[in-house]
Amino acid sequence: MIWKIAGIALAMLASAVPVSAQQNAPEPDQYRNENYRAPVPATLAGARVLSTAEAESIWRAKTGVFIDVLPRAPKPQNLPAGTVWRDKPRLNIPGSVWLPDTGYGKLAAATEDYLRQGIANASGGNNDALLVIYCQADCWMSWNAAKRVLSYGYRHVAWYPEGTDGWEFAGLPLADSQPPPRASEEMPGPR
């Protein structure tokens, strides 16, 4: 009976561990353009891949800038007048910069500009700053974004593939986040 209970407990624990820790996809040469929530590679050429313990160590020491790339649900078009729209809250690693929608395989020019500017602001324009890119477990968007940031000439890019799922699973804190506004969302100042 004890062995049966132990076996059930181990099966439950294994199912709670993000899938990417159980299996990995091969690393492609290009960005992933579909099926973004699927097992990710164990590697990203040119980037350091972080475990939760390593990400936590960087976070606690404040030696890196954490960049969250989880997409943000857009406000539906043509809402009836008077409809109240509330964005879904995003809980991410405290102190992170949230640059939503920047992990797709193909980016519109405005979205790529938003990513470039967001990374430049977060790094203080320092190409040697340690940038930790993440999303959720089994999310190709963080892999794509980290690969893209490497192509911009940043030399210390780390990819945290377990993202907020692994962080939360480890019992680490999460904080409500809001992304910096995009150029199209910025309100003009007083004249």
Residue-averaged pLDDT, rounded? 86
Enumerate the strands of the largest sheet in spatial order, edge to edge or round the barrel.
1-6-5-2-4
Beta-strand portion reads 5-15%
Per CATH, the superfamily of the domain at 47-72 and 89-183 is Rhodanese-like domain
**Fraction of helical residues:** 25-40%
Distance between the termini: 76 Å
Strand count, sense and barrel status of the largest sheet are: 5 strands, parallel
- How would you sum up the global shape? globular
Determine the structural class based on helices, strands and strand pairing.
Answer: alpha/beta
And the CATH topology of the domain at 47-72 and 89-183? Oxidized Rhodanese, domain 1
What does this structure look like?
With 191 residues, this protein is an alpha/beta fold. The protein has a domain at 47-72 and 89-183: Oxidized Rhodanese, domain 1, CATH 3.40.250. It contains five helices and seven strands, in the order αβαβββαβαβαβ. A five-stranded parallel β-sheet has the order 1-6-5-2-4, sandwiched between helices. Strands 3-7 form a two-stranded antiparallel sheet. Mean pLDDT is 86; it is low at 1-22 and 187-191.
Describe the structure using short key phrases.
disordered C terminus, two-stranded antiparallel ribbon, five-stranded parallel β-sheet, 13% strand, alpha/beta, disordered N terminus, 191 residues
Quickly describe the structure.
This protein has 191 residues and is an alpha/beta fold. The protein has helices at 2-16, 52-61, 109-123, 140-151, 163-169, and strands at residues 48-49, 65-68, 90-92, 97-98, 130-134, 156-160, 175-177. The longest helix has 15 residues, at 2-16.
